[in-house]
Design a protein that fits this description.
The protein has 17 helices and five strands. With 364 residues, it is of the alpha/beta class. It has two domains: 218 residues, no CATH class; 121 residues, Trna Endonuclease, Chain: A, domain 1 (3-Layer(aba) Sandwich), CATH 3.40.1350. Helix 5 crosses helix 6, helix 6 runs antiparallel to helix 7 and helix 13 crosses helix 17. The longest helix has 21 residues.
């Protein structure tokens, strides 16, 4: 970490607060209220939440600002995971006794539809001295401070990496403590990152492929322990992209006999009926099984497009296999998962800006 750069911005941060004391008081009060709210959800209370409680709990997250219709998104989270299963894993994540690395990995593996931004925000607002808030802006800020090994994509953010990010953020809190800043929680550090470290040059680079220092672990995506993260993360991102584009998007759907696919986009077009686009994400397994599954999906006349999703090397292998399959080769499309991550990031940013305009009231 570039500590001289950090100290310069801490001094600028303190100067701003001294010149605008009301902002300091307002921000401090806001943080206290957020922490009080999320800490009020004890283990027992989480286990007994009903749908309305879950909606209120999740909808208050800053990570939900990217969604206009929050009810629709949260209902999908509940439906896809089951309310009992969701409550159990949420309680274990927030109040479990195992190390955060394990709790993080289990929650990300078992619960669909919630990414690192939402998960880390819940943890940070419940345990602000222990856990940091990770999102696009945190990446920009820490990258500006020249922190090594930042996860560029969500699938790279394992429990081990999250623990490393928390420890890194605590070192920023320690620097704030040295100058006698009143609030040195990791939630306060998040405010500092937003106020001081969103440098324009860094923001403009966020969508470029090589933003930030290269994490050597990016080359190890074939490692078995990362496979499930990659698969589920990309599957959920494809669903999000479909929702933002106006489709009814779902994961793990049966589209024909013998064919259950990772993600579908579905639309009803006037009197023409349904149109379905099928996506299969492959991080491991047999290419022949992938091709057979996509072939079976075409037995549903509503399926108008089938898309294989993987990394560049695997996509070339899939193309070679599909070239010999007459009924599939001209219909199969290919999508690199790194491109999906960049598309998702761009649409997420656009939607957060549009939703901040509050053009459509909640519940409309």
């Amino acid at each position: 970490m570039n500590t001289s750069r950090l100290k310069k911005h801490i001094n600028d941060f303190l100067r701003k607060y001294k010149n605008h004391p009301k902002k300091f008081v307002d921000d401090l009060q806001e943080r206290k209220e957020l922490i009080s709210y999320y800490q009020s959800f004890s283990n027992e209370k989480i286990l007994n939440m009903d749908k309305d409680d879950i909606y209120e709990y999740i909808s208050k997250l800053w990570a939900m600002l990217i969604w206009g219709n929050k009810h629709y998104v949260i209902d999908k989270v509940i439906d896809e995971n089951g309310i009992d299963n969701f409550r159990k894993h949420l309680a274990d994540l927030v109040w479990g006794h195992n190390e955060i690395e394990e709790r993080w990995d289990i929650f990300r593996t078992e619960i669909k539809g919630m990414g690192p931004a939402m998960i880390s925000e819940i943890l940070c607002k419940t345990h602000p001295n222990e856990y940091m808030l990770w999102n696009r802006r945190a990446f920009v800020g820490l990258n500006y401070l020249e922190v090594d090994n930042l996860p560029r994509y969500d699938y790279q953010l394992t429990g081990k990496i999250y623990k490393y990010l928390c420890d890194t953020t605590k070192s920023i809190a320690d620097e704030l403590k040295k100058v006698d800043f009143e609030d040195v929680t990791l939630l306060s550090v998040d405010y500092f990152i937003w106020d001081e470290l969103q440098v324009e040059e860094n923001l403009s680079k966020i969508s470029t492929k090589h933003a930030g220092k290269k994490n050597e672990k990016e080359k190890e995506i074939e490692h078995p322990e990362q496979m499930k993260f990659i698969h589920d993360d990309i599957r959920d991102k494809i669903k999000d992209i479909g929702l933002w584009l106006g489709f009814d998007a779902n994961i793990e759907q049966k589209v024909s006999d013998g064919s259950k696919v990772d993600t579908i986009w579905e639309a009803t077009i006037g009197n023409m009926g349904r149109v379905i686009y099928v996506f299969e994400v492959q991080t491991k397994g047999s290419i022949d099984s992938l091709i057979l599954n996509l072939l079976k999906s075409l037995n549903n006349p509503a399926v108008q497009g089938v898309i294989a999703v993987s990394d560049k090397i695997q996509l070339e292998r899939i193309k070679k296999h599909a070239a010999d399959v007459k009924d599939l080769r001209d219909k199969l499309k290919y999508w690199d998962y790194e491109e999906i991550s960049r598309v998702h990031e761009s649409l997420e940013y656009v939607n957060s800006i549009i939703n901040n305009l509050s053009l459509v009231p909640q519940g409309f």
